[in-house]
Structure formats: structure tokens, C-alpha cells
Amino acid sequence: MTVFESKVVLNKPVSDVYSFLEDLNNHEGLMPENIYNWSSTKDEARFTIQNMAKLALKVEARIGNQEILIVPAEEAPIALNLKWTLTDKGSTTEAKLTISAELNMMMKMLASGPLQKLTDYQTNALASKLG
């Protein structure tokens, strides 16, 4: 597995951050411009990545105020999962997004840059939304 991580510290209680992230309807606002055809429920999201693929993701596990694990809801072009991990720092919350992907050597060369950019983009967007 190839792992991409990004962290951000938010001036919000962990319960507020968790409430936002546990609902996939809120994740559209964390996506870059090249994501379109977004549709979602609290537990599932479907979208298209421009010039790449269609993806369907679902929440596989929620651990209250700590973790949200998101996995493909159907066959995906690559095996991956997204995990938001929250750490209560008192008056602030550290949110870490980890994307783990099963990439062969060729895919690693092609996808590593975009996946790290996506990870960074999502944590920065979260900071903008909840800052």
C-alpha cells in the first residue's frame, strides 16, 4: 500500500469536526474543481474525476469523535481507502486524512502526485470550512 497523509489543526471541538466529516454530503465542499457529477447521501458518494474515472465511495466504519473510514462502494480502478483520524487537543482538533492505495509501479508514478495533492487539498478545504 502507498500512503498519502495530510494534517490540519482546527479551532473547533472534536465533536464539531466529526459531525461534519461523518456525513459524506459535506465532502463535496472538500473536493477540487476536477470533481463533478457529485451525488451523495450521509453514507455514500458518487462522482467523476475529470479525464480519469467514476468513483463510488461509502463509509465503512465510524468511531465517534475519532475516525471515519471510507472505502469504494463498488469496483474501483484502484484499491484504496480514505481515513480521517481526529485527535482532541482540548480547544482545537487535529484532523489527519490518510489515503492508502494499492498501486503498481506504473500507477505509483502516475497517481502519487495527484493523490498527495488531493490529500493536501482536502485538509486545506476542511480548514477553510471549519477553521
From TrEMBL:
The family database entries (Gene3D superfamilies) matched by this protein are listed as: 3.30.530.20
The source's superkingdom equals Bacteria
What InterPro entries does this protein's entry cite? START-like_dom_sf
Q: What is this protein called?
A: Orotate phosphoribosyltransferase
Please tell me the species this chain comes from. Pseudopedobacter saltans (strain ATCC 51119 / DSM 12145 / JCM 21818 / CCUG 39354 / LMG 10337 / NBRC 100064 / NCIMB 13643)
The opening ranks of the lineage are: Bacteria, Pseudomonadati, Bacteroidota, Sphingobacteriia, Sphingobacteriales
